[in-house]
Amino acid sequence: MGQDMRTSALVMGFAAALVVAGCSGGRQLNNFNVGRSGPDEFAILPTRSLTMPPDLSVLPAPTPGGANITDPNPKGEAVAALGGSAERLEDRGIAASDQALVAHAARTGTDAQIRETLAASDAEWRARNGRRPLERIFGTSVYQRAYDPMALDSRDEQLRWQRAGAITSTSPAPAED
Fold first, then answer.
1. How far is residue 162's CA from residue 169's CA, in Å, rounded to a whole number?
2. What is the percent of the chain with per-residue pLDDT over 70, rounded to a whole number?
3. Quick one: 89 exposed, middle or buried, by C-beta within 10 A (0-12, 13-18, 19+)?
């Protein structure tokens, strides 16, 4: 009798565990975006309420595919809440103070396909400096190792430029070794 009671209690315990696991709906998996079937409820931003313009004869021209005045602008609202000007976030092209720098950088021409060229050369570099067998097994990142020969040591660069006479006003003079 005691053995049958323990067996039935064990079966009922497993059944209860299965019911509880089934009711969770896989929420544990959704924490890792595995098996997610719907939208992310935290990524949906509410739109601003519609308002009637003061004068219907001076409405702005429509901008197909562009921004709408009811579209949410969380960055702009955060800047305005902190006392800044949300209009400063808008892209207005190259500032007048940077025109000379841009003209100097583009003096030998520009490449319209630079992003594609760099992406292709980076893919080739990563293919040549890919994961080693143990890195593949353990799933480690090879980013730092692959790009380490190209990295600059900020302290050495600062010393080099200061010794060359460059003024680095935003950087304190490093202590000489």
1. 10
2. 84
3. middle
